[in-house]
UniProtKB/TrEMBL annotation:
<feature type="domain" description="EF-hand">
    <location>
        <begin position="41"/>
        <end position="76"/>
    </location>
</feature>
<dbReference type="InterPro" id="IPR011992">
    <property type="entry name" value="EF-hand-dom_pair"/>
</dbReference>
<protein>
    <submittedName>
        <fullName>EF-hand domain-containing protein</fullName>
    </submittedName>
</protein>
<dbReference type="InterPro" id="IPR018247">
    <property type="entry name" value="EF_Hand_1_Ca_BS"/>
</dbReference>
<dbReference type="InterPro" id="IPR002048">
    <property type="entry name" value="EF_hand_dom"/>
</dbReference>
<dbReference type="Pfam" id="PF13499">
    <property type="entry name" value="EF-hand_7"/>
</dbReference>
<feature type="domain" description="EF-hand">
    <location>
        <begin position="5"/>
        <end position="40"/>
    </location>
</feature>
Length: 85
């Protein structure tokens, strides 16, 4: 089971992975975030989650979009129900 990062932790992981410094993640940066928080998905799963999380269809994931995705994948105060969600 993966432990849920606090809001500050998630912000730090997001900032570290945002190599462009533009407050949004491309697909590669998104994968870096997932690795940093211990979610191991296949490339196809990462691509699928990326496309689903990109609700405004701009080709990037914002921090709010990332939080929504993680909550939809089962993040709760106790951790993740299933990292493969």
């Amino acid at each position: 089971m993966t432990t849920k990062p606090t809001g500050d932790d998630l912000l730090a992981v997001f900032a570290r992975s945002d190599l462009g410094g533009d407050d949004r993640l491309d697909l590669m940066e998104f994968g870096m975030v997932l690795d940093s928080i211990g979610l191991s998905w296949t490339r196809a799963e990462v691509q699928d989650r990326f496309e689903r999380a990109d609700t405004n269809r701009d080709g990037f994931i914002s921090l709010p979009e990332l939080r929504i995705l993680l909550e939809a994948q089962g993040w709760s105060e106790g951790g993740v129900r299933s990292a493969r969600g």
